[in-house]
Amino acid sequence: MAASEAFDNEWLRSVGGAGPIPYLWQALQADGGRPGSACAAAFRSLHTQLDTALATLRTLAEGVTGQAGPGEEEAPGWLAPWLQGLARLGPWQEAVGRTQDAQAALHRYTAAYSECATALLEAVRTGLQDLEAQLGEAADDPERTLPQSCQELHRWWTAAGEARHEALLGSERWAAAFGRLTNAATELIGSCQAQLDAGLRHLDLPNREDFIDTQRRLAQLERERSRDAGSDEIKALRAEIAHLREEVATLRRQSEGPESP
User: Fold this and answer.
1) What are phi and psi of 186, to 5 degrees?
2) What is the DSSP letter of 33?
3) HSE (CB half, 13 Å, CA atoms) of 62?
4) pLDDT value, residue 1
5) What does the angle CA 103 – CA 106 – CA 109 come to, to the nearest 5 degrees?
6) Residue 185: CB partners within 8 Å, gap ≥ 6?
7) Which of 25, 45, 133, 193 has the most CB atoms in a 10 Å sphere around its CB?
8) CB atoms within 10 A of CB 149
9) Rounded to an integer, what is the distance from CA 44 to the centroid of its chain?
């Protein structure tokens, strides 16, 4: 076995669980180094996996937004306000309100996350299609060379995927989706913090607000201490100056001596 082939096999084993490239490389080798039936079956399998992931994300997004699935009945639109009104009655209305706000924030975050993940998976799927097309074009062009190693196939895959990924990141679709995800994540964190603070307060334990208040009071005490220390130092300096003035006056009287008759 040649040294380059041994190195390539070792590298192939090291990235065996890192993605579809080893799978595609093995299919390409089964076709004799040129795209054939094994390579086409490998691409179809990868496309099926991505399609399954995309369908799962779409189902998740539809469930979060409240759309009824096949065979399911949607709750009447007029019922939600009444249920919310009933839930907010009684001594637990504040806790119920926080729970509902946290649930709504979680739904918005899940929907925004599904939107961003869907866009990324679609970019990956398009990059995979580009790679398949590039391999077919290289096989039909006698002046072009097909990948001779798994590492080279990985470079082809990276180039195709990065082109689609960069195009997505520069699009208005991604800017809007990622903005919604950022806002939803911030809102969800705030809702979780409010829930945690309320729970700790209910257990008579210090929460985040208590720690912030303690830090604020400590900072205020430090400022007052510094101000008091500066005031005491000024008083000491003034007393020392008065004492020096008295000594200077005494020395002057001694230097002048008694008055002559």
Assistant:
1) -60, -45
2) T
3) 12
4) 42
5) 155
6) 109, 112
7) 25
8) 16
9) 32
What is the model's pLDDT at position 200? Answer: 82
Residue 258 gets which letter from DSSP? P
Identify the three-state secondary structure at position 231. helix
What integer best gives the mean pLDDT of the chain?
79
Helix (H, G, I), strand (E, B) or coil at 105: helix
47, 132, 141, 204 from 32: Cα distances, Å: 22, 16, 17, 72
Instruction: Classify residue 72 by burial, with Cβ atoms within 10 Å: 0-12, 13-18, 19+.
Output: exposed
Q: Is residue 88 within 8 Å of residue 96, measured between CB atoms?
A: yes
67: tokens are: 């759309």
Q: What torsion do the CA atoms of 21, 22, 25, 29 make, to the nearest 10 degrees?
A: -170
Closest CA to 103 of 184, 181, 182: 184
Alpha helices (H) along the chain: 3-14, 21-30, 37-64, 79-87, 93-140, 150-169, 172-202, 208-256
pLDDT score, position 6:
53
pLDDT, position 89: 65
Residue 233's CB: how many other CB atoms inside 10 A?
10
- Is residue 223 within 8 A of residue 141, CB to CB? The reply is no
